[in-house]
Amino acid sequence: MITLRDLRNKAICQLAQLSNDTARLDVDLLLEEALGLEALDIILQPHRKIEGREAAIFQELLNRRRVREPISQILGRFVGHPKCLVGHP
Question: I need a labelling partner for 65 at 20 to 30 A (CA). Which of 12, 35, 72, 85 fits?
Answer without folding.
Answer: 85
